[in-house]
């Protein structure tokens, strides 16, 4: 299973839209545009497909923790 597949499954399971994913990534100071995000969710054969790197998935998961639980206490 690729990082793109994991992102797609999390998006569906958590019922997240593109703006919410962008906002989640901003929680960990990672900036991505909706166009770049759309390229990650495209079909592998599409000309604008972009593989989801480990850095994007890692930052999304870290941001998701903050989004769901709140910031880590000091």
TrEMBL record:
It comes from the Bacteria. Pfam families: DUF1456. PANTHER family: CYTOPLASMIC PROTEIN (PTHR37805:SF1), CYTOPLASMIC PROTEIN-RELATED (PTHR37805). This is Uncharacterized protein.
